[in-house]
Amino acid sequence: MTAPLCAQDYAEQARARLDPSIWAWLDSGGADEHTAHANLGAWPALRLRSRALRPLAGAHTRLTLNGRTLAHPILIAPTAWHGLVHPDGETATALAAAATGTPYVLSAQSGTAIETLAALPEPPHLWFQLYAQTRREDTLALASRALRAGARALVLTVDAPVNGVRNAEQRSGFSKPDTIRSVHLDGLSPPAARTAPPGGSPLFDSGLLDTAPTWDDVAWLRHRLPAGTPLWLKGILDPEDARLALAHGVDGLIVSNHGGRCLDTLPSTCEALPAIAQAVAGRIPMLVDGGIRRGTDILKALALGAQGVLIGRPALHALAVGGAPALAHLVQILRGELEVAMALTGCRTLADVDAGVLY
């Protein structure tokens, strides 16, 4: 195989290497995958405005999030079970993140403990993903554990109180091997389910939604976290939810449709982003994920109001192909493509990127 030159090259090589059932788990979307495909198609459909003879001396991609200066606006999204695609699992991801100055949002369903990654000789800039647990005390305990280990932000994922309908994954026969487990969830109380009555709903009559998180849980968590802890919400796709997040003291939003893996026929994140940016009006930072495959996609996301982007599936594609070096290479590819796109649209810094770069 030739060396990958872009994110799509990594995807194609990963598919050739992985077991088909693992590929289906990794790359498929919910139901008929309309939203997953829309995520990929929406960014290229936007057109950029080329500008000539702009001053570019001193150009850079630096930005500030949570009071810290970052080298570039690319983050690694929280995705579960990296050990399914590479034997070094999340350790490889962390090494690549540290080498490239890329914040890594560690999944609550990681197969490697946050303490292990924080103890690496050169640890990455770690954030930690939370899912609200059945008991609020477990959610807080998980958050506290992450902060003790050095997590610099908490990311509460709010768009998946239940799993989506994942037909492609079901057809593949995917089953998580016993050697892979979500180590951060060990010892926490599982959802209390009951058997649905004959003819009853397997979801609505099972009790699984009785403890689904609400805005009250966000307020409860915000109040109990140590002062100054950055709390982000991931999975915001509606402007009214963005306004509610502001009212509840959230520090940042991640515009996301869960990679198109939950509710199918949602809008792409590219389509949803402008209205949410208008609702937020710059009061808190926003990130976006879903379908980011090129530096031009990153530039367009910034032009629509985001401060940065997260990559999920592409990170796993690169890991599957070549572990930490491959993922570091992918990040450098995307950063390089962003720099080229900035130069050719006349943007010296990220502060110069606005809606004016779009037709």
From TrEMBL:
SUPFAM superfamilies attached to this UniProt entry: FMN-linked oxidoreductases (SSF51395)
Q: Which terms are listed as keywords in the entry?
A: Flavoprotein, FMN, Oxidoreductase
Q: Where is the signal peptide?
A: none
| FMN hydroxy acid dehydrogenase domain span | 1-359
The cofactor(s) it depends on are:
FMN
Q: According to its UniProt record, which protein family does this protein belong to?
A: Belongs to the FMN-dependent alpha-hydroxy acid dehydrogenase family.
Under the heading PANTHER family, the entry gives: 2-HYDROXYACID OXIDASE 1, S -2-HYDROXY-ACID OXIDASE-RELATED
Query: What name goes with this protein?
Result: Alpha-hydroxy-acid oxidizing protein
Q: What is the originating organism of this protein?
A: Castellaniella hirudinis
| Taxonomic lineage of the native organism | Bacteria, Pseudomonadati, Pseudomonadota, Betaproteobacteria, Burkholderiales
